[in-house]
Fold this sequence. Notes:
Blueprint: H1 2-25, H2 36-46, E1 51-52, H3 53-60, H4 64-76, E2 80-84, E3 92-96, H5 98-122, H6 124-148
Helix pairs in contact: 3-4, 5-6
Amino acid sequence: MESSMNEQFESFEEVMSRLQQIMKMHYPGKDSGLTASQLFILRLLMHSEQAKASDIARASGLSPGAVTQVCDELVKEGLVQRTRSQDDRRVVHIQITDEGRAVFQKIRQTRSDKIKLILTRLGDHDAKEFVRIIGRVVDIVELEMDGQR
Length: 149
């Protein structure tokens, strides 16, 4: 049993290493010049009307200073904008711009096309099983993370 688990771990580690290398080489934001952090923030802002830097920091795991720096870069690129709250001038809201939406949608479409190709090549049964198993892995990891808090 122990030997089998070690073999599974070794196989898993090898596959994950190869997957990480492939993902670096074919990172969805690579052609647009966006970093993973920039793409994460754009994705977050696509799903919310606006967010404060502290909200983004909490959701991304980045420090508030790092969020500010990444947002500064996105503002320079015209992909997000900052506006002061009408209720409290100390609060700054970050929103995605129309250009930011267009850039994100283009990246998302490219990634979607690649994933659909992979799932098609897996076949219907294996694709469903793959998605089911990945979902279980995410659930387990989330439970573990919640238990550590």
